[in-house]
Design a protein that fits this description.
The protein is an alpha+beta fold. The chain has eleven helices and 15 strands. The strands form four sheets. A five-stranded mixed sheet has the order 11-13-12-14-15. Strands 1-2-3-4 form a four-stranded antiparallel sheet, covered by helices on one side. Strands 5-8-9-10 form a four-stranded antiparallel sheet, covered by helices on one side. Strand 6 and strand 7 form a beta hairpin. Helix 8 packs parallel to helix 11. The termini are far apart.
């Protein structure tokens, strides 16, 4: 029986190939990317899977072929064999591309990550333009300081990493940290932006996101050191702004959650995307033990016109229903994309100190 690999499928379909040595890379998603520079579909050569975090489409080898050709999944093996047979004179299935094998570190426990991230943030500062951006969203200076937002360093990370090690911080298994070929620890950030702590129900920093300067697409990225020596990938953690409550808002993005909580006082749980449900289910189970009974969703208003977001939203509602939660949704003036924008403009901007 023929054994196919995901790089065979990519080659047959003339999909972009991975950059040299990379086992994971992004290409335009055929389902939701409409502009030439959009690249949301991730192909992982090592795991032989693909996934788009924007629209949620995902699968394995045969699913990828079916996605691009329309061939039913159950007929893909035969179609692949036939197609390769037709091209026998001019095509040879590629062997696995040369992928640099890198040993990554297993994820450190939450207490270790929290200690290391807290120590890191204490060594950083917040640039004036970033402070201005956050003030313009409705946050006060004292709230910004409490949240721990800082400007990403673009130089000097080897020195800071050495200081953290001397202070007893563990860097192995903390997403963002990795070792160079000379065994020196380093932090992976190489683009300026705002570092955003992503906290659990106890206020501990699970991981971090960065809001990157001067980009229009994929502005918010996870701080991750995946595929780097002794590095560690980030998970799609949820973020809690405020204390657990009987009724909580559910939105997208930790910064948005922090702003909504600051402006309203409501407890807000944030997912990194409407299709990111794995970590959400874990968080909801923990919050139910703290008294959570009802979820009010507050996703950006463009959900009404984006079919890919709508699909993810329906899956979210199914999850809430299956878990036995009461749920509803907030709607507001559609000229304001997010609830944070609406509340800041219409309810509190003139009165907030």
């Amino acid at each position: 029986m023929e054994k196919f690999h995901i790089w065979d499928v990519a080659s047959v379909l003339n999909l972009p190939s991975a950059p040299s040595g990379r086992s994971s890379y992004y290409i335009p998603c055929p389902c939701c990317d409409t502009k030439p520079r959009d690249k949301h579909l991730n192909i992982n050569l090592r795991k032989e899977v693909f996934r788009c975090p924007k629209c949620g489409v995902s699968g394995g080898i045969f699913d990828l072929y079916s996605l691009y050709t329309g061939v039913p999944r159950e007929d893909v093996r035969e179609a692949m064999a036939e197609r390769l047979g037709f091209q026998e004179q001019s095509y040879r299935p590629e062997r696995r591309p040369a992928v640099k094998e890198v040993k990554e570190s297993p994820m450190a426990d939450i207490e270790t990550r929290h200690k290391t991230y807290t120590a890191l943030l204490n060594k950083l500062s917040l640039a004036s333009d970033h402070a201005g951006n956050l003030l313009g969203r409705g946050l006060r200076e004292d709230e910004i300081g409490k949240l721990g937002y800082k400007t990403t360093p673009v130089v000097g990370m080897t020195k800071i990493a050495k200081e953290l090690v001397r202070e007893g911080c563990e860097l192995s298994g903390v997403p963002g940290f990795y070792q160079t070929e000379s065994e020196e620890w380093k932090f992976t950030i190489n683009q300026r932006g705002i570092l955003i702590p992503v906290r659990d129900e106890k206020g501990r920093i699970q991981g971090m996101q960065v809001r990157r300067d001067d980009v229009k697409k994929r502005k918010f990225r996870w701080v991750s050191s995946s595929e780097l020596k002794n590095g560690c990938k980030a998970e799609g953690w949820t973020h809690l702004a405020g204390e657990p409550a009987e009724t909580m808002l559910l939105t997208e993005g930790p910064m948005k959650a922090d702003v909504i909580h600051a402006l309203t006082g409501l407890a807000v749980l944030a997912v990194p995307g409407v299709n990111a449900l794995t970590q959400l289910e874990i968080a909801l189970k923990q919050l139910r033990e703290r008294g959570l009974q009802k979820i009010m969703t507050a996703f950006d208003m463009d959900m009404a016109t984006n079919p890919h977001v709508q699909k993810g939203y329906q899956q979210l509602l199914m999850l809430l229903n299956q878990m036995g939660f009461q749920f509803g949704t907030y709607l507001w003036d559609g000229s304001f994309k997010g609830l944070d924008d609406y509340v800041w403009e219409f309810c509190l901007k003139r009165n907030r100190p």
